[in-house]
From TrEMBL:
PROSITE patterns from the UniProt entry: MFS
Membrane-topology descriptor: Multi-pass membrane protein
Protein's cellular compartments: Membrane
One family name in Pfam for this protein: MFS_1
SUPFAM superfamilies: MFS general substrate transporter
Location of the Major facilitator superfamily (MFS) profile domain: 296-488
Predominant place of localization: membrane
Gene3D superfamilies: MFS general substrate transporter like domains
Name of this chain's protein: MFS transporter
Organism: Novosphingobium pokkalii
TM region(s), chain numbering: 12-30, 50-70, 82-99, 143-164, 184-202, 234-253, 299-317, 343-365, 372-392, 398-420, 432-459, 465-484
Coiled coil ranges: none
Amino acid sequence: MGSAQKPAQTFWGLWNTSFGFFGIQLAFALQNANVSRIFQALGSKVDDLAFLWIAGPVTGLVVQPLIGHWSDRTWGRFGRRRPYFVAGAVLAALALLGLPNTPLLLVAALFLWVLDASLNVAMEPFRAFVGDMTPPHQRAQGFALQTWFIGAGAVLGSLAPAAFKAMGIANTAPEGVIPPSVRYSFYLGALAMVAAVAWTALRVKEYSPAEMAAFADEPEHSASHEPLVYPARGALWMLGGALLLGLVLALGLDKQLLVLGGGLVAFGLLQVVVRARASTGALAHVVSDLAQMPRAMRQLALAQFFTWVALFILWIYTTPVVTREVFHATDTSGAAYNAGADWVGVMFAFYNGVAALAAFALPVLARRIGNVRTHMVGLGAGALAFLLLLVIRDAQWLLLPMALVGVAWASILGMPYVILTRVLPARKFGIYIGLFNLFIVIPQLIVATAMGGVMRSFFPDQPKWTMLVAALVMAGAVIAMARVQEQD
């Protein structure tokens, strides 16, 4: 047992620890602002956009908890978290190079899957990395600086196509071809991804397992010897999934819901197999830790679920909403459509810029009203933003809701993790942050499988109404946060 106190980081220590997120978020912003544009350019219909994003969340359901579990238990020549975010950066860079250079929609969807999975591999250990390298009293500052890098990377990623257009590089192309300004932006993203993550990997020395055990006042490797819990509700999950599959087939519901039903069956089957075999492998540990989530984490998870449903609607449907409703364009090869798509990049850059500034204001507000209430304020700003996106038809005025989205985004990136790391054992930061991120991935899966059917059934060729759905679910996130009991 040990009782050493983890030393506080200097400003430059915090800077180096978080700098890799600049490249990760630049790549993430390029994905969010341009992938729907690429899919439409390659022939996808608006109603099918959500389904084409589905491979990433399905992979994330598996990748994030496993990467968290393994990174908690990894220690070697290259450290604990670093091998994972370096590998993720290299794979993501390769996907960024391939995505805008394929003429085939199916291949583009495959590259999106690789990109999304790779970003999951890189991003999850970075969240735990801040917890590893900072004492509890400094984590709000650490996550704030990480949010600043996320905002800065996202600004550059979102503005890149418009910036290349301003340099004289074409932002239009024949049907089935990705504009050069978009391709060059993805090349920039690949370079930034590798360079930024390499900076953190080379500049930060991780604490050894013995040092981490001393800081946490826990026996070294104690997580490896804890008794496992085997949930007994696997059969119920399988039954629920089977019922959904049956309803889809019997009532002729949207076939994309088969993916969701199959996922429920698979999750239930995993629990049944793990329990029947009394397994002790990585999947058994993931299932056990999921069953033992701290109460505050469960409360946060519901708010996180609603929040990310709204965010994925924003990222998938803002381009068709703005190009159709504000720029009055549906021809993806036309100048008006591409001008609208470029403006969406500007909008996304603007909200990320606001988030970068708000990141340092939110901890100040949190000291006055608490972390939970501060996050409720941020989510409330997001709900109002979606209502404004539903009604505003002037391109310049769209920056107003984007400013509100920026406040919400800053809070989403920081406050839940500040609250969460107060209740988690340090030896399990990786696995529990990986499990917490399931409530980012599951909403993406639901939006990807269900939103296209909702659009076709209730508002065909009217993507603007997705913003009303987003406003309602974000309001649900505010209500869910009111139930979270903050730990001092």
